[in-house]
């Protein structure tokens, strides 16, 4: 099932129940299976590395099989070589890149 959520985006979690999470998406409540989410206590300040969806329509093919999502403004950006950080062309913020889940646990 497609819930029409942006991969790598950060949505406020209102409540987590048995296997489901109620999230706030543009001031509307949406219930989704909790297993689809990576729930953390605070919003990390690192670029999220996101696998390219098979049905992607708005992502340039030149970006390859993954892209990054800015932690500040949620802009999407291509990923090049495995550099430790990069700047966002939309908001100008400089952030580390979460190449592994360890970034979310720090």
Structure description:
With 106 residues, the protein is mainly β. It folds into two domains: 1-39; 46-105, no CATH class. Helix content is 4%, strand content 36%. It contains one helix and eight strands; from the N terminus they run ββββββββα. The strands form two sheets. The chain has a five-stranded mixed beta sheet with strand order 6-5-4-8-7. The chain has a three-stranded antiparallel beta sheet with strand order 1-2-3, with no helix packed on it. A hairpin with a 2-residue loop joins strand 2 (20-25) and strand 3 (28-33). It starts with 12 loop residues before the first strand and ends with a helix. The mean pLDDT is 90.
Summary keywords:
106 residues, mainly beta, five-stranded mixed sheet, three-stranded antiparallel sheet
Instruction: Calculate Rg over CA atoms.
Output: 14 Å
| H/I helix tally | 1
- Could you give the count of β-strands? 8
Q: State the share of residues found in helices, binned by percent.
A: under 10%
Q: How many individual domains?
A: 2
Q: Which class of secondary structure composition applies to the elements?
A: mainly beta
Strand content: 35-45%
Strand order of the largest sheet: 6-5-4-8-7
Could you describe the largest sheet, including whether it forms a barrel?
5 strands, mixed
Q: What's the quaternary structure here? A: single chain
